[in-house]
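no rush on this but wanted to send it before i forget. theres a chain ive been looking at and ive put its sequence and its fold in token form underneath. please have a look and point out which stretches look like helix strand or loop to you. thanks a lot i owe you, the record is right below:
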Amino acid sequence: MVSVAQLKDVPAQPAPRPDLAELRSRVAQIAPQIKARAHNTEKAGRVPEENITALRHIGYFDIVKPAMFGGYEHDFDVLVELNIELAKSCASTAWVGGLLAAHQWLIAGFPEAAQRDVWDANPDAVACGSYAPATKAIEVEGGYRLSGRWSFASGCDNAQWSLCAALLPSKTDSGQFAPAFLLVPASDYVIDDTWNVVGLSGTGSKTLVLSDVFVPAHRLLSFADTTSGTTPGAALHAANPAFSIPMLSNIPSCLASAAVGAAAGALEDYLAATARRITRGAVAGHNNRMAEFPTIQLRVAEATASVDAAREVLLRDLRDRAATIRAGNPVSVEDRIVSRRGQAFSVALAIRASEALNASTGGLGLDLSNPVQRAWRDANAVGRHISMNWDAVGTMYGQLALGLTPQGQY
């Protein structure tokens, strides 16, 4: 018989890795409370700490995090599928929660020393980010110095680190610069509340202000490495080829999922309200069921088809990229641009769906607390992001298909 004293010396076994079904169940459990806070989240201009705590409690930030640091190492389609579900309740929370979770995978591309800087002292640490190179970094002994303003740092109030993009002097071409991410702890920057917007208001995508901050050289990840999948971290986590998928085949899909989920949530809310709604207006006739109007039926069909197609395109492309890399094949330029096309087009479909619904909510739909019009504003806000803008991304695919050199980020 094993004594109590002996049991104390037995190391604790790690919790089993939750599968997609278990994670879906966890998200469903916290969805009502996040939905109940959605209007206040928008008014506050940031995701409340209660939402972040709930996401952390269900392991949301571990979904694509490397197992070396306590993560589940699921493929990105798992995170995106769950984020669509989360966005049904609150697109702002899904935008931030999805990005903070996705950035765990991005941090895994940095050298091991940088990953240990983030997670050794605080296994729960997460990072926000600002992707546009805001300034030129100054090279100094042992690293770089950064000063400037980094805007659109979604979830910065909820993060312990930030990925700040900057231009670094080229090691090979004199006078040339190349973009890179530099990892900066929250203690090294100040948050300037510049976020006062009409859509995705609750994301708290404020501006980070850095003043002569030193960043050691090991906290650097070049755009060239991460967009090609040839990162230091990919070698460190070589047992899982998913860490060598090009960044822009994965991360923007998480952004797109917020729009798709917002539209899906709007559809659910619209059906719940419209199925029982009786008209009151004299022009359209009163005491008629809206559900019996053919125009309403068509709007529901259009929204349903658009959401369904958007979801399928997003998940299909993610699974295709993962299958390619696991088969030992490189993700080609064409594959990468197909991913970018799917991400942007899924957002265009989400906007189409939310517009079809919002346009027929009547006067009640003008109320800022109405979830259908909030989803409409949020989906349109996602479409304004340069990585999600159909005009910008669609032309890039058209260039490829027509035999031209694609111009853009892929």
Notes: Strands lie at 127-130, 138-140, 143-153, 161-169, 177-185, 190-192, 206-216, 220-222.
